[in-house]
Amino acid sequence: MNEKGMSAFSFQNEAWQRFSNGYSGMVVAPTGFGKTYSIFLAVIIDFFNHPQNYKSGLKLIWVTPLRSLAKDLARAMQEAIDEIGLDWVVEVRNGDTDFKQKMRQTKNMPDILLVTPESLHLLLAQKEHQRFFKNLQCVAIDEWHELLSTKRGVMVELALAALKFENSKIKIWGITATIGNLDQALEVLIPDATKRTKVVAKEQKKIEILSVYPPEVEILPWAGHLGGKLVQEVVPIILNSKSTLIFTNTRSQSEMWYQLLLEAYPDFAGQIALHHSSIDANLRQWVEENLSSGLLKAVVSTSSLDLGVDFKPVDTVIQIGSSKGVARFMQRAGRSGHSPFETSKIYFVPTHSLELIEASALKEAVRLRIIEHREPFVLAFDVLVQFLVTLALGGGFYPDQFFPVIKNTYAFSEMTKDEWKWCIYFITQGGKTGKNYEEFHKVVPQVDGKLIVEKRKIGMLHRMNIGAIVSDSMLRVKFLSGGYVGMIEEYFISKLHKGDKFILAGRVLEYAMLKEMTVYVKSSSGKAITPSWLGGRLPLSSNLSFFLRKKLAESLSPNAREKELRFLHPLLANQNKFSHIPKEDEFLVEQIKTREGYHLFFYPFEGRLVHEVMAGLLAYRISKLYPISFSMAMNDYGFELFSDREIKLSEKDLHQILSKENLMQDVISSVNATEMARRKFRDIAVISGMVVQTMPGRQVNNKSLQSSSGIIFSVLEDYDPENLLLRQAYTEVFNQQLEEARFVRAFERISTSKIVYIFSDRFTPLSFPIKVDSLRQSLSSEDLATRIRKMQENNLKKKSRKE
DNA sequence: GACCTGCTGCGGCGTG
C-alpha cells in the first residue's frame, strides 16, 4: 500500500470494498500481484470498519493446498499485523504442527488459522467444534484453481457447506490464478448466488518465450524426450542468471539433467540441486531455502516447485520438453521476474524436433491467453461417506437436516435422495455386503435419529485416515549409516542386486539390502543407472492440441514467419515430400510397409491417453471387418496399429472405422473397463474407509492394499453391483481414463475432416517417434539401439534408391 | 541423422 492507503492494483481495492459490503467472492490475478495479500487486507480493513463483528477467537481461516505455503504466509501475515499494532495472533495447524501446539489451539484458537483441507476436516471431526467457528468471519481458499478439479476440492466444498450451516454469516473468498472456466470455479466455491462476486485483475504478467535451438537442425533428434543434446546451450543461460529454475516433466528426467549439467560444467558442483517428490522432505526444504538465499545457482525440478516459490523469486526459468498445457507453462514462466511489472522470461528447450511446433503453439496460446479449464470433480461418493463419518465423529448430525446442506454443494447437486440414503446405509451398515462386519458399522443412530460414532477406536482410525490422497507404492531409501534419501519404486529395486549402483537425489548409491519396506544403501561413485518411477502421465491438454494442429498446418505456408517453424523447415519438407502435412480440416493416416510388416499410423494430436483408447477402438473395428490382430503404440501426436499381415483397408473402410456411430458402445467392447475400474477402485476403497491405509504405528504396504481392495471389488461385482462406490469407479474410468467428452469431440472433428490416406515404404518424421516408442516397450536398450540403426539404414537405402 | 519416461499433494499414536 502507498501512503494514501491505496493498494498498488485496483483489484485489491475492489476486493476489500466488496468484502466490506458483505460479499463472498473470488479474486483472480497472476502470481506476484498480491492477490493473497488483498484478501488478508480485506479482513483487516473490514475489522476497522466493523469492529463490532469481530469478537474473540478465530476470525479468519486460511486454507492452502500446501503446508509449505502456510508457513511463509503465516510469518508474513504476523509481521504485517504487528506493524499495524493489532494484537491478533496468526498460527498454522497441519500435520507439521506439534502436539502441544495443537492442544493449545484447541483450548484457545488464534485469530487467524492457516490449514490444509485435511486439517480443516480434522477440526470438524472434533466434538464441540462449533465453539471454534462461533465468531468466524471469513474462510479464504488459496490456490483454488489447484484444488478445484480434485477430490481435495470436494473436501473443501463439503467443509464450507458444514461451516456455513453452523454459522451462516461466514464469508467465503477464493484466490485463484486465471483458468478457462472462472465463472464455474466461482460457482463451485460459492454455490449460493446471493452476494457473490468475482474480482479480476486487469493487469497481466508479460511473458516472453525463448526457444533454445541447437546450432543446426540435424542435431535435434526426431524422437526422444530427454533433450540432452542441448545441454551446451543451457549452461550459458544458467551462467548468465543469478538463479534459475529448470523444469522437467518426470523425476528421472530431472535426475538425468542434473547429471548432464554437472558433466557439461563441473564447476556447477555444489551450486546446483535437485527437487522432486521422491526426494526426502528435509533435503527438499534445504534446497528451497538455499535457492532463495542465493546459495544455489540453479535447481532442476519437476512440478514439485510449480507452487510454493511465491516468496522465492528467481530470474530465469527453463522448461525442458513440452509442458503439455498452456496453464502449466504460464505458471512456470511466472516463477521468474521479481516484480509484477517485469517480464517473465522462460526458455523452452525442445527434446525432439517436432516439439518446436509445440513451442510455437504455446506462444500463440499464451499470446491469446487461451488457458485450460479445470473440470470440477462431482459425485465423489467416497469423499462424501468419509466426510459423513467425520461429521458423525464431530458431535453427530441428523440425516434429514443435512441432506439439503450437502445437496447445496456443487459436487453433490445432482445427488438423488436414494443415493443419499445409500450413503447413510453405508456408514451405518457397511452396505449390502458389510452387514455382518462390525468394523463397517462405523456410525450409530441415536434414539432421536442423530448419527454419531460411538467407538473410540473407530474414531481414532478415522482421524488417522482423513484425506483424499492415496499413497503410491514406494520403498524408503536410507543410508546404512542412517539418514534418509528419498523414495523409490518397488519394481525398480526388484531388478537390482547387491552392489548395483543407482542414482537418487543426484547421488550415486550402492544397493546393500532390503528390509521392512526400506532399501539400505551406501554412498558410492561411478557409473550408475537412473531409476524410473511409475508416476502419472501428463496429458497433452486439448487447448495445446488445437494450437499444435494449427501450427503444423501452417508450418509450410510462406506466411509462417516464426523462427521455430523456419528452423524445422527441412524436416517438415521431408514429411511433406514422403507423406503429407495435415491442414486444419484434414486427418492424416499413413500406411507404411516395412520388412517387419504393416504399420498403420493415425495422427489425431489428442494426447497419449486419448490415443490409447482410440487405438484399441480402431483395432477392434478393423477386426470386425475381417479377422486380424494388432499391436499398438502411441505418443502425444498419434498412434500405430501394427500387424505382420497385410492390412487391407480401403478409403471407404477407413471412413467406416473412423465413424462416430456407436462410439461409446464400441469403446466399451474394445477396452477392459472392468480391469480399469478395478484399478480406480483402489483409491475409492481407501478414501471411503473400506480399506484402512494407516493403522497406529504402521503403514499398510501397497501389495496388501491392492489385494484387499481387489477382493472387495470382486465381491461387490458379484453380490452388490448397485453399490454406489463401485459405480463411481466406472464413472471415474469414463471421465478421466477414457476422457469420454474429449474423445467424442475428437471423433466429431475427425468425422468432418477430409481424410488423407498415404501409402509409404519408409518411416516419416511423424511416424518415426511412435515406432521408436513401441520398440522401447518390447526390447532391452541394446536391442533398441541396434533396431534403430537398422531402421535408419533401411530408410537411407530407400532414399538412395529413389534418388 | 534419428534412443535411453512418465507430476503433485495430505494425514495420523499421545493429553488436560
Automatic annotation (TrEMBL):
Top-level lineage group: Bacteria
Keywords: ATP-binding, DNA damage, DNA repair, DNA-binding, Helicase, Hydrolase, Isomerase, Ligase, Nucleotide-binding
Domain Helicase ATP-binding span(s) in chain numbering: 16-197
Gene Ontology MF annotations: ATP binding; ATP hydrolysis activity; DNA binding; helicase activity; ligase activity
Gene Ontology BP annotations: DNA repair
Annotated ranges, domain Helicase C-terminal: 229-392
Gene3D superfamilies named in the record: P-loop containing nucleotide triphosphate hydrolases
Pfam family, one: Helicase_C
NCBIfam families named among the record's database cross-references: DEXH_lig_assoc
Family classification: Belongs to the Lhr helicase family. Lhr-Core subfamily.
Protein name: Ligase-associated DNA damage response DEXH box helicase
Protein's organism: Chryseobacterium manosquense
Lineage: Bacteria, Pseudomonadati, Bacteroidota, Flavobacteriia, Flavobacteriales
